[in-house]
Amino acid sequence: MTTPARPPLGRSLLRLFTVQGSWNYERMQGIGMGVAEQPLIRDLDGNGTAYHAAVARAAHFFNAHPYLCGLAVGATARAEHDGVPPQQVERLRTALCGPLGALGDRLVWAGWLPLTSGLALIGVALGLGLWAIFGFLIVYNIGHVALRWWALRAGWAYGGQVATALREPVLQRAATLSAPAMALVAGVALPLVVHYLTGGFLSWTRAVLAVVAAGGFVLLRWQRARLTGLRFGLVLLALAALIGWFWQ
Amino acid sequence: MSPPAVLQVMLLVWGTLVGLDLVSVPQAMIARPIVAGPIAGAILGDVATGLQLGVLFELFQYDILPVGAVRYPEYGPATIAAVSAAHAGAGTLGFGLGAVVGLITAMAGGASLQVIRRLNTRAVHRAAAALETGEPRVLARLHIAGILRDAARAAVVTALGLALAQLARDYLVGTVWSRGRVLLSVAAVGVALAAGTAGTLRLVGRGPGLRWFAAGLVGGAAVVWLR
C-alpha cells in the first residue's frame, strides 16, 4: 500500500460539511462519512477490490460530533493506506464514536456555541443590532471551521494512533476553559436580556412576568424529564389567550 | 397587512437555508434564532422585531442539547414565521402573536425531522446490498437524496409557518383585545426566560461553573443598573 504525498484533504473537508445530510437511524452519519472519506481512499489499489471494500467500510454505522467526524475520516483513510487489517479499521471507527461525541458535545454544544451565542445576546441587548449577529457568525465559524480542519488533518497525520491527537494539550485546555467561560457569559447575558425584552412592559406586567418566569423555571427543573420549554410555552400561551378573552 | 409576494419568497428561501443548516449543510449556525430572526426582520425591513424575536427564541433554543438521535423542536424557520407574524401587529401584540406562530411552527419542524430520518432510514435499508459493494455512486446518490429531502422538508416547514403567520395577520391582528395582547407577550417572555435559564443551568451544572454563572449574573445586573 502507498500513502499519497498530497492527500485531497480540502475535498474531503468540503464533503464533511454535509456529513449529516443523509442522517438515518440505521447508520446514523455512516453514509456521510463514506462520502467524505472517498476522495482520500480513491487511489487505493488502483480503484480495485481494496478500494471498494474500503468505501463499503467507510459507510458503516458511525455517530459522533459532526465537527469531529473528520478525525475518524482522516484516521481510517490513513489506516486503509497503511494496510491495517479491515477488522482493525472497523474497531478503530467504533472506538472513536464515544470519545469524539463526548469531546465535541463538551467543546462545542456545551462550550463554544452557548459562549458565542451568549456574547451575541449581550451585543443585541447593548444595542449593537445586526453587528452582534454578524460578529457571532464570524467568530463562531472561525472556531467551527478550524476545529473541522484540525480534526481531519490530525486524523490523517496520526492514522491508527489517533487517540494521541485527542490528548493534545490545546484541545484539553480548550475543553477545560470553555465551560467556565460559557457560564460567565450566560450569567452576564441573562439580566441584560431580561432588561432588553421587558423594556416596553408596564410595572404590573413585570410583576406577572416575574411570577411566570420563576414558576416556569421551577416547573421545568422539577419536571425536566417530561416538560420542555416548547410544551410549557404552548400551554401557557393558550392559557394567556383564554384569560385575555374572559378579561376584556 | 401582508408582506409583498417577493418578500414572502425571500423568507421562504431564507427559511429553507436555515432549515438545511440545522442538521444537513453546513451547520454554520444560521439556524440559530438569533441569526434567523434578525435576517428575516431585515428582509421585511423591520430589524428591531427580528432582533427581539431572535432573542426570545434563542432563549428557547438554550433548552435543547442536540446530542445523538435526541428529538427537539426546530426554532430556525419558526423564528422566521414568528417575525413574519409579528411584523404586522407592531409592538406588544406582534410579540405575543409571533410567539404563538413560532412555537407551533417549531413543533411541526421537530416532527418533520423525525419523518425525514425515517425516510432516510428506509432508503438506506433498501440500498443495503448495493452499499456493501462499495460503489461510490450508490453512496453519493443516497447522500444527495437525503440533502434534497431535508431541503424540501425545510421549505415545507417554512411555508407552513408563513401560512400560519398569514392566518394570524388576517384573523387575529384586528380582533385580539388589548389585555389579551399584553398577557400573550408576558407569557411568551416568561416562558422563554424560564426555558433559557433552566437550559443554561443544565449546561453549567453544579460545580465551579455555577460560581462563574453567579458571578456573571452579578456583573450583568451591574451593567443593567449602570445603564
Secondary-structure topology with pairs:
The complex is a heterodimer of chains A (248) and B (227).
Chain A: H1 9-16, H2 30-41, H3 49-58, H4 69-81, H5 86-125, H6 130-158, H7 163-166, H8 169-197, H9 203-222, H10 229-246
Helix pairs in contact in A: 1-2, 1-6, 2-3, 2-4, 4-5, 4-6, 5-6, 5-8
Chain B: H1 5-23, H2 33-44, H3 47-61, H4 75-88, H5 92-126, H6 128-132, H7 136-171, H8 178-204, H9 208-226
Helix pairs in contact in B: 1-2, 1-4, 1-7, 2-3, 2-4, 3-4, 3-5, 3-8, 4-5, 4-7, 5-7, 5-8
Q: Could you explain the architecture of this structure?
A:
The complex is a heterodimer of chains A (248) and B (227). Chain A has 248 residues and is mainly α. Chain A is built from 10 helices and no strands. Chain A is elongated and about 80 Å long. In chain A, 50% of the residues are buried. The mean pLDDT of chain A is 91. Chain B has one domain (5-226). Chain B is built from 9 helices and no strands. The model of chain B has no long low-confidence stretch (mean pLDDT 91). At the A-B interface, helix 2, helix 3, helix 5, helix 6 and helix 8 of A face helix 2, helix 3, helix 5, helix 7 and helix 8 of B.
